[in-house]
Amino acid sequence: MKQKTNKFRKIFVLFLAFVLGTASLTSCGNSGWRSKEVTVIDDNYRTWYEIFVYSFCDSDGDQVGDLQGVISKLDYIEDLGFNGIWLMPIMPSPSYHKYDVKDYLEIEPEYGTMADFEELAAECDKRGIKLIIDLVLNHTSSEHPWFVAACDYLESLEERKEPSASECPYYEYYNFVKGNPGSDNWYQVGSTDYYYEGIFWSGMPDVNFASQAVRKEFEGIVDFWLEKGAGGFRLDAVKEFYSGATGQNVEVLTWLNDYVKSVKPDAYMVGEAWEGLGTYAQYYASGIDSFFDFEFAGPTGVVTKTLTFSGENNSAQAYAKALCRVQNAIREYREDAIDAPFFVNHDMARAAGYMQYDERKVKMAAPLNILMSGSVFVYYGEEIGMTGSGKDENKRAPMYWSADAQAKGMTRGPLDMEPQENQFACAEDQMKSDDSIYSFYRDTILLRNQNPEIARGIVARLEEITDQDVAAISKTYNGETIYLLYNISETEEKQVTMSAGQYGELEIAGYLSVDGGKVTMKDGVVTLPAYSVVVLR
Ligand code: CA
Q1: What average pLDDT does this structure show over 152-157?
Q2: 87 C-alpha to center of ligand 1: Å?
Q3: Cβ-contact 79, 427 below 8 angstroms
Q4: Residues annotated catalytic, as ranges
Q5: How far apart are CA 193 and CA 199, in angstroms?
Q6: Where are the alpha helices (DSSP H) in 66-108?
């Protein structure tokens, strides 16, 4: 089923095309590609925007972001071309980041109310945006009533009496042992002989997934949020359900996937299995739609290496090979695996720093990430090249809407954050400029949305194109094949022959060029300026 989004923009674009008449028609294929129709398919190959609500947008003047703030920025998100939103945890929690939940069925009061959430879900639905929320199953807060009750029970237990779940059901919700295991990650319950597992820290006791009662609780929690309008879940820390035991983790995820899909067959789930490719690929056996693609992300991932490291292993050719490598690794476990590429997230330093704030590189990184097959995730603020590294709080700084820190919507950020100096202009200013990082991101997502094969296509390398600075791939989906050429040379124009004899009659469907130069095609020869990408079909 095809669903058209961006109706207003499309009407406007059609109007413009009408006014410009043949002028825009003849330029189509050059910069005129932007006026082509956007057709977004309503499936789980989306372009997602990750939001840390606390630092995103404040609606009520307390300088803490909230759900109404997110609602007020839906136009901004939609205009960029996103059709999915991932909210980091929104449930009540003692921490600023809220990855330690103390009530799974409520909204963090700083963020608003359940009515706000329902309003957000309905507003997203109207716009064809799927809304997923962070679901933290591995552990609860030590302030969660389940844990408090279990500890109270153990502390009141008569000496020499064995604890039992029949007396306190919550006793089996966590991993308690008698006697000090003598290793890190185990913490004493008061002054008793009992210890509990907390793989992250003492404030996050690990949940025991061997308990059927725990699984029932989470089934109820999943029901609750799907009913409130969540379109799925981002699953935190799935490799720690049974730390070091991938097979057992896959079993837990199989249960969860089967349950969620039985309630809502089109729900989308993406898991965080922070491991190397060989391991995270195995998680696809669970049936969960996607797992984050750690291979391409971060300061030493493929995107950064391609743009900032030298040598053959970091060439454009190596980038194209990596696309195939990841695709083949995950499809080995499930043919319909949906890769979940991202460049950075809330646990990683912001990408502009990896590029030493070189604006050309910051821009070029966008298509290397966003034109990947799968469901692509962009962390808020990356589209304007925000700053943030070092301690976690710095990576979760206030969305830089305005140069005026007191302007409407601006947040104060985490209390322990060090002051962040943004190197690029604020969103408000970048939105006014056609050659800002913001505009480059918007164009990149537009190109993705115009060509459904970009998100859904199976990638193959064009091995006959051997220039080390050129990545040349095809993507095939639903019987259609398109071609993408990336010139990853910082300085050199490249010519690539795409003869009609070999590839059929191709035309430029659209392109991105960091310096604003045109990509052209004549007699089968494509000319690409330095740092440009073209889609041919
Ligand atoms: Ca607020």
Answers
A1: 97
A2: 16
A3: no
A4: 236, 272
A5: 19
A6: 67-72, 74-80
